[in-house]
Design brief:
Blueprint lengths: L3 E8 L2 E9 L9 E6 L5 E5 L4 E4 L7 E2 L8 E6 L8 E5 L2 E5 L7 E4 L6 E5 L6 E5 L3 E5 L7 E4 L4 E9 L2 E6 L4 E5 L7 E5 L4 E6 L5 E5 L3 E5 L7 E5 L7 E4 L5 E4 L3 E5 L7 E5 L13 E5 L2 E6 L3 E5 L7 E2 L8 E6 L7 E5 L4 E4 L7 E3 L8 E6 L5 E5 L5 E3 L7 E2 L3 H4 L7 E6 L5 E5 L2 E5 L7 E4 L6 E7 L3 E6 L4 E4 L7 E2 L9 E8 L2 E6 L4 E3 L15 E6 L5 E7 L2 E7 L7 E6 L3 E6 L5 E6 L3 E6 L13 E4 L1 E3 L6 E5 L30 E7 L4 E7 L6 E3 L6 E8 L3 E9 L1
Parallel strand pairs: 57-64
Antiparallel strand pairs: 1-2, 2-56, 3-4, 4-5, 5-6, 7-8, 8-9, 9-10, 11-12, 12-13, 13-14, 15-16, 16-17, 17-18, 19-20, 20-21, 21-22, 23-24, 24-25, 25-26, 27-28, 28-29, 29-30, 31-32, 32-33, 33-34, 35-36, 36-37, 37-38, 39-40, 40-41, 41-42, 43-44, 44-45, 45-46, 47-48, 48-49, 50-51, 51-52, 52-53, ...
Length: about 725
Amino acid sequence: MRYLYTFLLAVPCLLLIGQVEHLSPQPYSSDFSGIYVDANGTGFVVGSCGVALKTTDGGQNWTQVSLPQDDILEAVSCRPGTGCAEVFIGGKNFIYSSTDSGESWSVFEMNLSRTGVDIYFPDETSVFYGRRTPTQWYSTDNGQSWSSVSINPQPSGGISFPGNQVGFITNDNPGKVLKTEDGGQTWNEAYTHPTFINQLSMVDGQNGFLSDNTRTLYQTTDGGITWSEVGPHPSINAIYFEAQSMSTIDLFGSSIFNRTTDGGQSWTEINTIENTTTNRGTINANTHRSGTNYWFASPNTEIIRSTDDLATLQNTFLDLRTVANQIEFAEENSEVGYIIDGANRLLRSDDEGENWTEINLSDAPAVLSDVYAISDEEAIVTYTNRPPMRTMDGFNTTFDFIPTSITDTLTNGSLRLIERASTGRWGIFGTNHYLYSDDDGQSWTVVFHGLNFNPNFLSLNGNESALIGGTLGRLLRSTDGGLSWQTTDALPAGSIFAYGLDLGDGRLLAGPTSQLARSTDGGQSWSTDGIPSATRRLALAPNADIYTYRATSEGNFIYRSTDQGDSWEELSRGCTSYDDLAVNSDGSFLYLAGSGLRVDRLLIGPSSIAQVPNSAQIEPLIVYPNPTNGLIYLDFRRSEHRGDPRLAGAEHYGDPRPAGAISEAFDWQLFDASGKLVSQGQLPANNQPSLSLAGLASGMYHLRVFGRQSVSTARVIVR
């Protein structure tokens, strides 16, 4: 199943349709945030991307539920005693209710921010939708109509309805306990706590517990009017806090389960996530309990359950729904892509991301670090615990990319990241060494940098300029081909640089933690002006456009810059968490991959400024240097013009003529940003085709080169 979100983008002389399309490997994926399973085994789980699933066998199997509106779903609950015939789902924009176990739905529109907590039933006909905003929603007629009530300051998340229209809610500034006796229609202050209240759980209308930010447990026996200190509880960030009785309390963190059976006097660790089949090693989850059965709705499209009072935990899904850590596409074949996932698997697609299959590597015990794909057959993978390997047959066989006579001497650290510059130079950066080759790996220059850190990204610009970022707050730049590396100190100290680009001429983009910054002087100074906040990761398209995304509670905002990061436009929005992005070699699609092994695809396509025959294929063109002060060179090697017989040296690396050499003329046209034709002509037969753009005003231009069956395009920045 696919989910299609369509947004129209206004671009000069161009109307693009940005389509965020969900692809495989999984038919659906979601950051689950709400789960409820009734005692009879019927239940629902909901999350981002409009995903709702139903079980009728206690969570062993799940099927998709169709809702009348697409929404970010946050909470789900069934009215007790109905066998989940009456079910309510709370979303960002809508509340959904069903009286036939999800066969049909009624919808109430809210249009709020994404802050739902859970759904409660104060009595036989009342419903309360608790949220971490000042506005709460309630119904007195079983969801046929809804009203809102304002609570200020906004709730901090501790909400409990023990029954008989009595409910409790906590807020901060300072910590307060508010109480309702009419099902949530009105609230009054019952108690003021000296510090922030983290969690609250009531056993009944009189008795319950709260936990504060000092990791101290308090109890009440008079309906929340007074609270007495019980004592400290385990020092964890609790994501689940429930008082089953005045003696038994569950306190769960993301990796540890704790329980007391003596009212908080002592605590026992009853299970650790290390004993489960969860994919990320933590449970950041909404939790539901029914007797000794527990269900956890987690990111990565995971549903974890226990049927033996947490003695063991099982992942409901047999297929591994881990995170997609990296996605890459082959530079010579836009249909071939690779994913490295959190389970140390290498996945491959041969159809533009439509389908993905696992590559069975003979060296599976090694830990994958990076992949660089050249064609449908050729690729290179690096590892954290062994030397890089190369394949020339689509991973049917692999061999050492670097001779063992070299790698055997590199005893301090691993070679983790690989990149190839537009000049053909290979660069590999490791914990303590940097290696480069200018003859496709036949010989290598080894540089010992001794920095002893793990890189997160490597960006090469030509043979001389490179940018590295990684742990320990280090952002490094080389201007001498990697022989020496200088630390950039102008960005916040202690940041983890997870992404960056070296765009040439001292122009850099780098992301400390979650904020992209721009430098135009080689890293001496940085600015975030005009850059969306909380941006993550970068992808450089063949036409020099740059893509990034911003993760928020409302989803992922996807941005593009056409001027090397000076300004950004929002293209579209994704509905779940992403961990990486990539543009395929023909520039037609932006791919985004992340939690739940989710792969989304956004149609970006080349600019349609010039008139092109309907039968022509539009392909990207590599030009360099870009930006330019005048002269540019054209590289057809990665273009579909490679099949044109006029290309003399582009077909094989062994041809003595330069890659991209042409034996006959090509027509070309140059348009400015408004779509006006400013120049045109022919590329003469040449071993190294080039164009002079000297004399043009600074700005963005669109170049088109016309082949016999295709048209190659590139955006060129003139300075």
